[in-house]
Amino acid sequence: MNLLVQNYKTNLKQNIRIIWSGISLMADYLAILLAEMIAMYFSEENLRYIDLFIVIPFIYIAFIAAARTYRRTIPFWQRVESLFYSSIYSIIAVLLFFFVRANATEHSIAFLALLWLASFICLVIMRYLLKRILDERNIFQIPLLIIGAQEEALAFVKAINSDIGMSSYKIVGLISDKIPVKGLENYPLLGDFKDIENIIIFLMLAGPCAVYYGAMYTEALFTMCVVMCFYNARKRNYMTAGVFAALASATRIVGCTLIVVLLIEMYIDRYKKQEVMLGADNGKEIQILSGLKAGDKVVTEGAYQVKLAGATNAIPAHSHEH
Length: 322
Hints:
Blueprint: H1 2-43, H2 49-66, H3 76-100, H4 109-136, E1 142-147, H5 151-161, E2 169-175, E3 189-191, H6 196-206, E4 211-212, E5 215-216, H7 219-234, H8 238-251, H9 258-268, E6 277-281, E7 286-290, H10 303-312
Parallel strand pairs: 1-2, 2-3
Antiparallel strand pairs: 4-5, 6-7
Helix pairs in contact: 1-2, 1-4, 2-3, 3-4, 7-8, 7-9, 8-9
């Protein structure tokens, strides 16, 4: 099961990356076609069909991919800079292609300049529109939890919101021990710093098969199984605790160590005789002078089982309560 989950995680991550890259590549292809048509219209020059639909777009996309602009979360102006240099390298490669084909004078310098300018502008506009459309539909967004709600957090939120290239991050809440400053009041305050452990555990258990950065991880499922194993063990539901321990071991191999924890808990929970010194007795309550200390577990119900345990020093089959 662990191997299957790991393969699913890898495949899911790769599929989302492929889908995102494919959508961006199609947008770039359309932008390059539009730039070619603009350059041909204003320069009154024509391109061969193979150059128009295959050669020039392929050269552009190759340089754009080499600049790693198909990543989802990079600052927009960094993406624009990469597209700028990619368009320069691409137009130089197109010129070399025409030269190698022995048609260096086939197209004028004005056409190549128009093609470079139009391609850069069309690529930037197309990428901007694509990002806006995906963000409005909450596609490929990454949940973000911010710890702190003061000036530093406000500056961080403004930096994300003001850069469309980072808008894939979606703020799901704040954790702060102070009242959020103006500008952060619209985001839900999940708790303060002393509650941070409980909040994180709750968020993990709320999505046992959570998806982070487009890939499925089983850490949340493993954590849920471990917590439920401990909870049922403390409640003396050892059968249920064993089931959750088995699920945890199927999720992560380290879960096999839970059997040791369960055996220790069952050993501690066994019956044992303990001599005590009694004190005052008012008919309802009896004072214990010695033999027990605060926090010790004692049997309060099931007199027959207590007597049987005292006589045989064995663990009765019937369940008991503390």
